[in-house]
Write a structure and sequence with these properties.
The chain has 558 residues and is of the alpha/beta class. The chain is built from 13 helices and 29 strands. It binds adenosine-5'-triphosphate and magnesium ion.
C-alpha cells in the first residue's frame, strides 16, 4: 500500500465542468461551500466540502466559504467558528475572506426593489394560515392572494415600511409574483422577505426583515461569480426559482445549479436537528463527542483528514442513492492510520502475571521498532520485569478448542520477548482469577523454543514501567443501521448502551510526552489517539479508541 494520492474518480459534475471549460463557456471554475452557521458540520458536509474544495483544487479554480446567515435565531458565532476550523482541519482553504450572505443584505434589498418595480414582487398581508390555504396542494392549483395586484407604488411604499419596522413580525411578507397554479409548489409566489426582529450575529439589529434562503442563495452565487453551484438533491425542485430570480434581476452572471445525492451513513444520523437533540438531551458529551458523526467529533476520536477525504473519494458523487455503511468510513480511516501510527503495547483490561523465575527488581530491555515498514519511525526499549500486565481476555481457565492464547499449562510468546508458560492461576474468595503465576523459557529470546511450536503471541507491559492510562473504548453510537428509519420511534431509543466504556489500563512509557491528537496502534487492539481536550503530555494519558484493527462489528453480533 502506498500513501500516494489516489486517482480521481470522475463523475457527472466533472464531465459538465470539462465540457464548460472545453467550450470556453468558462475560463476557470468557482465553487462555494454554503453552510448555515446553525450547528456543527457532519460527515455529510464533509462530502460536500471535499467536492466543492476538491474541484477547485483539481481545476485550479476557487472555492468560497459563504455562510448562509439568513436565519438569525438559530445561528451563532460559535457555530461559524467551528465550521471554519473544520474546513481548515480537513485540509482546505477558501478563496479570500470568509463571505456571508449578510454582506449582501443591502444588494439583496435593492434587487427586491427591482423586482417590485418590474411588477414581479408584491407585499402580501395574508396570515400564515391563509397563505397555506391559498397555496393549494400538489393536486390542486393555488389561488391568487387579494393583495397580488397591488400597484408598484404601494408595494414600494409597504416594502420600505417593512424595512423601517412599521409592522409587527410575521404580519407581512414580500412575495415573488410567479404562478399560483404552477405544478412546482416552490413557484407559487414564494416569500422572499419576512419580518423578523431577531438579533443577527453580524448585522446586529440593523435589519428587521430578512431575505429567504432561495432568494438569497442564487443572488449570492451570482455576486460571487460562482460557475457551478453544487447542492444536494432536495434542491432540485428549487432550481426553477433559482433561475427565475437570476433571470429577472439585473446581474451579470447566472451560475448553474447542479444537484447530487446526500450522503446517508448507516449506524449514524446526519440531521443537524437530531445531532443537536443528542447534545441538548445529554446523550453525548457535546458536539465533539468522539461518537458524533460531526467533523469535530471524528477529529476528537482520532479520524484523520486524509482518511475522511479518501472516504469521500471512494463514495463518489452521483444522483443516485448514497447510503453507505459505516464500515466504509472505518476502513478508510484504518488504512490511513496503518501507514502512519507508531505501534506500541497497551493493556486495556489488565491481569497481573508474576514471572516466578525472573529475579525481583531486575529489568531487561529489548529494542522494538515503532513500525515494521517504517524504520525511520525509530525504536524504543521495551522493558521486561518480574511483574507484567497481560490482557485478561488473553487468558482462559477453560480454553475453547483452538485457543492460542494463555491457559494453565500452556505457552504463548510475549511480543518482543520470551515464551511464557502459565503454571498457576490465583483466585479471590469468589473464584475470580486475579493473578497468574508463570515462568519464562530463557532460551526463547528472538528464537523459537526447542522441540515445540508456540503459535500464540500476546501483548503485555511491565507493571513497574508502564504508565496508567484512561482508555476510552468508543463504539458506534447506534445499534441499528437506520436509527431514524422508523418514524414511529424516537431515534434515541437505538443508542448503543455500550458505545462508551472507560477502561483504566496501562501503556508503554514511551508515549509519556505525546501531545494531544497523537495516534498509536496498540498492538492487537486497534488505533488509539490522545484526547484533544483532556490529555496532557507528561500526565496520565487519556486515549480514545479511534477504530479497531479489523471490522468486527457484524461478526460480534451474529
Ligand atoms: P439545514 O437543514 O440546517 O439547512 P443542511 O444539512 O442543509 O441543514 P447546510 O449548512 O445548509 O446544512 O449545508 C451546507 C451544504 O452541505 C449544503 O450545500 C448541503 O447541501 C450540504 N450537505 C448537507 N448535508 C449533506 C449530506 N448529508 N450529504 C452531502 N451534502 C450535504
Ligand atoms: Mg441547508
Amino acid at each position: 500500500m502506498s500513501s500516494a494520492p489516489q486517482p480521481t474518480v470522475s463523475n457527472f459534475i466533472r464531465t459538465i465542468i470539462d465540457t464548460d471549460l472545453a467550450s470556453g463557456k468558462h475560463g476557470g471554475i468557482v465553487t462555494r461551500f454554503p453552510p448555515e452557521p446553525n450547528g456543527y458540520l457532519h460527515v455529510g458536509h464533509a462530502k460536500s466540502i471535499c467536492l466543492n474544495f476538491g474541484l477547485a483544487q483539481d481545476y485550479r479554480g476557487k472555492c468560497n466559504l459563504r455562510f448562509d446567515d439568513t436565519n438569525p435565531e438559530k445561528e451563532s458565532e460559535e457555530y461559524a467558528q467551528s465550521i471554519q476550523d473544520d474546513v481548515r482541519w480537513l485540509g482546505f482553504q477558501w478563496d479570500g475572506e470568509v463571505r456571508w450572505a449578510s454582506d449582501y443584505f443591502e444588494q439583496l434589498y435593492q434587487y427586491a426593489i427591482e423586482l417590485i418595480r418590474k411588477g414581479l414582487a408584491y407585499v402580501d398581508d395574508l396570515t400564515p394560515e391563509q397563505m397555506r390555504e391559498y397555496r393549494g396542494t400538489l393536486t390542486q392549483a393555488g389561488k391568487n392572494s387579494p393583495h397580488r395586484e397591488r400597484s408598484v407604488e404601494e408595494n414600494l411604499d409597504l416594502f420600505a415600511q417593512m424595512r423601517a419596522g412599521a409592522f409587527p413580525d410575521g404580519s407581512r411578507v414580500l412575495r415573488a409574483k410567479i404562478d399560483m397554479a404552477s405544478p412546482n409548489m416552490n413557484m407559487r409566489d414564494p416569500a422572499i422577505y419576512r419580518i423578523r426582529r431577531a438579533h443577527h450575529i453580524r448585522t446586529g439589529d440593523a435589519w428587521c426583515i430578512y431575505p429567504m434562503y432561495d432568494y438569497t442563495h442564487c443572488i449570492s452565487d451570482a455576486l460571487e461569480g460562482i460557475t457551478h453551484s453544487l447542492c444536494t438533491l432536495e434542491f432540485e425542485d428549487h432550481r426553477p426559482l433559482y433561475d427565475w430570480v437570476l433571470d429577472n434581476v439585473t446581474i451579470a452572471c447566472h451560475p448553474r445549479q447542479y444537484e447530487f445525492s446526500r450522503l446517508e451513513l448507516h449506524y449514524t444520523i446526519t440531521s443537524k436537528r437530531k445531532l443537536l437533540q443528542l447534545v441538548t438531551e445529554g446523550h453525548v458529551s457535546g458536539w465533539d463527542d468522539p461518537r458524533m458523526p460531526t467533523i469535530s467529533g471524528m477529529r476528537r476520536r482520532g479520524y484523520t483528514p486524509q482518511g475522511i477525504r479518501e472516504f469521500a473519494r471512494r463514495i463518489g458523487i452521483s444522483k443516485s442513492d448514497n447510503t453507505v455503511d459505516m464500515a466504509v468510513l472505518e476502513s478508510a480511516i484504518r488504512e490511513d492510520l496503518e501507514l502512519k501510527a507508531p505501534r506500541v503495547m497497551a493493556v486495556v483490561k489488565p491481569l497481573k502475571v508474576v514471572v516466578t523465575n525472573f529475579v525481583e527488581g531486575q529489568t531487561e530491555s529489548r529494542e522494538a521498532g515503532f513500525h515494521p515498514n517504517h524504520p525511520e519511525f525509530g525504536a524504543r526499549p521495551v522493558p521486561f520485569a518480574r511483574e507484567i500486565w497481560i490482557e485478561a481476555d488473553d487468558f482462559s481457565e477453560n480454553p475453547p478448542g483452538g485457543w492460542q492464547r494463555l491457559a494453565i499449562g500452556g505457552e504463548v510468546r510475549l511480543r518482543y520477548s520470551y515464551v511464557l508458560r502459565c503454571d498457576e492461576a490465583i483466585k479471590d474468595a469468589s473464584g475470580n482469577v486475579i493473578e497468574l503465576r508463570c515462568s519464562i523459557d530463557r532460551d526463547t529470546l528472538g528464537k523459537n523454543p526447542a522441540g515445540r511450536k508456540v503459535k500464540g503471541v500476546i501483548h503485555w507491559v511491565s507493571c513497574a514501567h508502564a504508565l496508567p492510562a484512561e482508555i476510552r473504548l468508543y463504539d458506534r453510537l447506534f445499534t441499528v443501521p437506520e436509527p431514524d428509519g422508523d418514524k414511529s420511534r424516537d431515534f434515541c431509543e437505538f443508542i448503543n448502551p455500550g458505545s462508551l466504556v472507560v477502561a483504566q489500563g496501562w501503556v508503554e512509557a514511551c508515549v509519556k510526552d505525546a501531545p494531544p491528537e497523537t495516534c498509536y496502534q496498540f498492538e492487537r487492539l486497534g488505533y488509539f489517539s490522545t484526547d484533544r481536550r483532556e490529555h496532557q503530555p507528561g500526565s496520565r494519558p487519556v486515549f480514545n479508541r479511534t477504530v479497531t484493527l479489523k471490522d468486527s462489528w457484524a461478526k460480534e453480533r451474529e
